[in-house]
Amino acid sequence: MKPNKLACALAGLLLTPTATILAQTAPASPDTTQNPAPAQPAKQLQTITVTGSAIPRVDLETPSPVTVITAVQIERSGLKTVSDVIRAVSADNSGSIPNAFTAGFAAGSAGVALRGLTVNSTLVLIDGQRSANYALADDGQRSFVDLNTIPVNAIERIEVLKDGASSLYGADAIAGVVNVILKHSYKGGEATAEVGTSQHGGGFTRRFTGILGGGDLDKDGHNAYLSVEYQKDNAIMNRDRSFPFNTLDLRSIGGVNGNGGQPSAPSGSIYGTVTPGHLNTPGDLTSGVADGVAQPLVPCGQGTTLVTNDPQNPGSYCLQNFVNYLAVQPETERANVYGRFTVKLNATTQAYLGASYYQNEVSVLAAPTQINSGTPHNTNALALPPTLPDGSLNPNNPFAAQGQYALINYAFPNLFAGSADLKNHNVRVAGGVNGVWGEWDYDAGVVVNHTWLNVSNFGFLNYNQLIEDVTNGTYNFIDPSKNSAATLQALVPTLSKISTTDLDSVDFHASRPLMDLSGGSLGLALGGEWRYEAQHDGELNPGGAAQGLGTAHTIGRRTVGGVYAELDAPLLQSLEVDVSGRYDHYSDVGGNFSPKVGFKWKPFETLAVRGTYSKGFRAPGFAENGSSASGGFVVRPPPADFAAAHGNDGYVKPFAVELLSAANPAIKPEKARSFTFGLVYQPIKELSASVDYYDIKKTGVITGGDARAALDAYYAGQPLPAGVTITPDLPDPQFPNALPRPLVVAAGYLNENSLRTKGVDVDLIGRFDFSNGMHWTSELSGTEIFTWKLLLQDGTQQQFVGTQGPYALSSGAGTPRIRGSWSNSINYGKATLTGTLYYTSGLEMTAADQGPGCISINSDTGNNFPASCRMPSFTDFDLTGNYDINDHVSVYGAVLNLFDRKPPFDPINYAAINYNPTYGQAGIVGRFFNVGVKVKL
């Protein structure tokens, strides 16, 4: 490379004003720097259909911003799943679902949320066609495609359209489209085998992939290939990670001791705590009232701390760190097989058939089951009787001889509420015919996609059996090892169900040039689609029999028909205008028309100006308008005057309130309008940059009732908001005339809010060839959100960007202002080395949907915790390498999170212990090593 060219390249990298913004995107054309192609005779350029347009084109730069991630780039990144690859895109933000969020409604899955508009506003396609949604909805409301069920080994490229696209693809494409494009043909064979492990323990992984294909479409008239994948990742336990991620005792850094065993929580240890008392309501064992001092049921085990003289709950307790039972990464096992057969019917026509089966199993670990629960039955004041039905003294009650009841706090040592096994199966068959008929290029396709999810939940107490065991003394609290398997199975029966989704579709589109214009041919595309969608997610907890488990069921089905058209007009050599529109009709919510117009203007060869304006919509999911209901839990401290009316007793300590949302058959689709405006600049062939501004406004946002407003009204004795009801808990045994605490807040879904988000994407790409045969590719890109505002029905405006809101959304991960990465890859001879730096900006621990002030406070002092009320930014660096031993064998390896950066401290994220897994999972995993070998036939 000449010195002046290198200087220009480095100056472009260093002086570009966007060089401080980091992000993960890919160049808009396949990466060819590793093996530069030799000079070839001039030939006609091949056209290609780019996501966001139905008209084949030579120029890959469209009016809409599209990021292309090639198979080569995926391999160099060291990322092994589609979920990891897509969620590393800088435009993925608030509402994204990480694999680590195993306590959520949609446990066992992963979803992408472009622009922070939640997972149900980003459309995920495979080869331009839809796929069935995951069988469980995020937060019991939002439907989405599980990224874990897309095969990685067969990927040719991933195109991420960061623009509204309902004018071509219909509903759900408000924030953009992720189109995973699989290999259309493959010749040869390749296999990889690798292992990996974390430096700090846990997470051992083993992975195998293979692909084998043969046949030349041009010579043989057919091609067929088969791809297989298998990967198993061991769990990573919290106890194997350092402070503060292995405990809830945060007193050393200004917090409180949140470990178990403290009845004021209330919670119990596996050793138990009992307090002498009586029943407020004769015969009701859940109405215990304390009369004396608490004491351990059995001696505290080794390593526990004895706490005495709690002014609200005097006595002695056995503290226990339940975090030791939890995992920062669940055990997962994935297996996939995908095959495709393509046949050339004649010189202009091909037919294909592809089929895949993907199985993803996630094993969730949990802490010991607590005997105390606030819902659906309140057992926080459960008492052991002094005598059994036969008149004998109760051996579990140390106060039986005095005729007193024993209020009990206890954690069952061999039962684990919330532990689960989720095995998701996805069968997808896609076939079609494409070719040329006269002046028309056409493509017709059929998709049949069925998923079924086996859900098994363990450790949840059956309320009726619990009361029977306590009454009859059936369960041995003194020596749990003496309880029979039959006793345990009856107390915590396995809760199982099979949830399913279906998507069957038929689509057809065709395109042709209509006439010559000054800049080229006027292109026309026409298309239509019909599909059937269904979901059947039955009730896991019928009748509320299981303690501490919310309700959730979703059942629905519908048909959808859509037609669309697109015109692409190169009015001048320098000006292209694209117009498209689509009409959809849903059998359950009616019709909608979505238009879009875009332009691309090149005033100079080195500069392009582009922009779009579009309208889109999102049809309600079955959870929102079908036969459905879902209930989740939030913990919210009550007002001071309410607590004072109850003497600040254990009844008003932080308790869970169930938020119950019900489907509304009259709900309407969400509507959106969006526009983008951007520049693409390429001063030299080795260097290109793009800047794209976006502005999205969504109206008629579907939301549940305002739980915060409803609770505020309840505590103040005011009328509740329209459509909201509150079910009160049982009265406080010590203050029976005081207002009971709220137990359930129930409301139907409504179209009542609007939101607006604005921001900018920046991409900077350089590819440089040096005279000694070395090639360097550098990709710097990122997304900055300027604003993310929610406008409530009463006119209140909530700003979330840079905060941990919307806190009620998914895992409460927040809305980072900036996300991004910088990747550099050097190829020299047989070796390739790639380093990628990822960055996520910090968050204020505030959330407008939770009221003013810091969410995270020390409950003992009332001070912010931490004092800054801020989660710092997170930066980590991955290093990967590959060496070709010969033409058939290569070795590769990776060190992920090379500098072993820990995740930022975040005590209020409810998806994990003291960190934010949506943006900091690499930090909790720590430095991770991977080595593997690839063999080519």
From TrEMBL:
Topology of this chain in the membrane: Multi-pass membrane protein
Protein name per UniProt: TonB-dependent receptor
Residues in the signal sequence: 1-23
Record field: compositional bias (Polar residues): 262-272
KW Protease (keyword) present: no
Gene3D superfamilies cross-referenced by the UniProt entry: TonB-dependent receptor, beta-barrel domain, TonB-dependent receptor, plug domain
Family designation: Belongs to the TonB-dependent receptor family.
Alphabetical keyword list: Cell outer membrane, Membrane, Signal, TonB box, Transmembrane, Transmembrane beta strand, Transport
UniProt keyword Transport, yes or no: yes
Subcellular location: Cell outer membrane
Main location: membrane
Residue ranges occupied by any TonB-dependent receptor-like beta-barrel domain in the UniProt entry: 434-898
Residue ranges occupied by any TonB-dependent receptor plug domain in the UniProt entry: 61-177
Region (Disordered): 257-277
PROSITE patterns: TONB_DEPENDENT_REC_3
